[in-house]
Amino acid sequence: MESSSVDRMACVGLTRARLHEMLRRMRRIRLFDECATEIQSRHIPGFLHNSIGQEAEIVGACMALRDDDYMTGNHRSHGHPIGKGVRLAPLMAELLGKSTGVCGGKGGSMHLAAFSVGSLGESGIVGASMPAAVGAALSARLRGTDQVCLSFFGDGAANCGPFHESLNLAALWCLPVIFLCENNGYAGCSSQAQTTSIDDVSRRAVSYGMPGFVVDGQDALAVHEVVSAAAARARAGQGPSLIEAKTYRYCHHQEGYDFPTYRSDEELRSWRAKDPIELFTERLRHSGLLLDDERAAIEAEIRAEVENALTFAIQSPMPEPSALLDHVFI
Length: 330
Fold this sequence. Notes:
Elements: H1 3-11, H2 16-43, H3 55-62, E1 70-72, H4 79-84, H5 88-95, H6 130-143, E2 149-154, H7 161-172, E3 177-183, E4 186-187, E5 190-191, H8 192-195, E6 212-216, H9 220-235, E7 241-246, H10 265-272, H11 276-286, H12 292-315
Parallel strand pairs: 1-2, 2-3, 3-7, 6-7
Antiparallel strand pairs: 4-5
């Protein structure tokens, strides 16, 4: 690793311990989603959308926030609360619909929330969480705090009405929102070229009078840097930003469904060569910031966490029928 890269780590304020935590959270997402995919047919009702391949942009963005900042996600959102620091056991229990889950088993894979880390919720409806992010930012403004809200959405959501409505209102009211487009190149099985007339979703920022940025979503440090700057801008009362992280999902749109061929083996190989966790790990090793025994210890630690989370989830009870209307407005 070149000295300029080491200097870059220092300039974004990341200590050795913080860099190791970034690696932990990326490995948590990877191993959690691999485990969830493996048990999906036996233990998890419905479809499952994993974030394997997108770990760097998730963790880089989430670790640029404060603990009290808010976040909203989408249908592919196990990784987001993990990136923000949630415990794995109640998250796995939620996927299995158990009473010990982060939403008491009522949210499942696509509609979970984790208020303990500021995760306000996700939705299987494409783009539906974006207005909620604007509402959270408005709440912070009205309460006089300097909290921000990070809104994750995909390139498919960028072509839906809530995207335009949310960006317009956030810009009009100068709200502290960071809109982060996880552009993995596909909306379901449809490539971006089939659905969008421009190469960069971030170019739409100019239409709403906010800055727009494109960042390498496979580079956790690059994402951390640009989201940190957007958060500082939002806290200073300068309004929202639109960030587009170019990334890739290695698996299909969802597990549990036999998809037709829609991408080439060559495309998959080229993106796997840019595996975000491997790239980040090698940068740390080459800079002397991650020793081999430290890497092995982190790996063993995360594998144990995932195994314990799965055991906890399987052994947890299903919700009682009497809990059906708890936390429901009627």
